[in-house]
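The pair is quoted verbatim below.
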Amino acid sequence: MPDVRVLRPGDEAALDAFLATYAETSMFLRANARSAGLTDRGEPMQATYVAALESGRITDVAAHCWNGMVLVQAPSHAAAVAREAVRRSGRGVTGFSGPWDQVIAARRALGLATVPTTKDSRDELYLLDLARLVIPPALAAGAVHCRHPEAGELELLVEWRTSFSVEALGAPNTPDLRRASRADVLLQHERGADWVLISGTRPVAYSVFNAMLPEIVQIGGVWTPPEHRGRGYARSVVAGSLLAARKQGVQRAVLFADPTNAMARAAYLAIGFRIVGDYGLVLLAH
């Protein structure tokens, strides 16, 4: 049996070396550990990290995050590390994220396999080498442009984030959701990870880098309001953000999306992404 223990400050290099071998499916784990460290005080981006080690080397990791999500990169011992991470954090579980089979194993180990969910999806995992990024014609011609949002636009983005959570994640539209949406919008803005597409003078689409490393970014929360759909705005906001990232030396981008969303799939494939695997996202009903 492996040695299962909590990771502490000083374990960062070993953790990142392990996760880098699964780079496309470890973005939340790597980015959060780099930005917030391995100490868990329940603050944004923090988590309790638990690893399985064999002969002193990390083979599996689970993190129970400040927001209740359980993140896994655990090819061999997902059940053991997930159980210990949740036990040691003392928090409730709100969902799971990671490679699909590992999400299933972690959820079952915690006795949550039959708990109702608002989202239970085996998403498609997309990867793009930014040297192969295809620029949408409207963006290339300057008919639209991409930038970070301004302070006066953040309340609009709270509305959009709330609508995204209802439509894409199955969340109930409650005051709690609006509060959570505002906190998320402000956090992404503070991190410089948010992007809007501008047509004329109006924002028409929104996207974030929900995990960022110097060489790779992960895209999430892509949203075009219904009244602006069908005009290629989603692909343009994603492509515009990646153009900016490429100028900063970022080499690759990943994202995961529901396979039933044909419009999203078409948008991502059109700008050069390819499907390389799967990724699990489970959100428990409260």
Remarks:
- The chain has two domains: 3-115, 126-278.
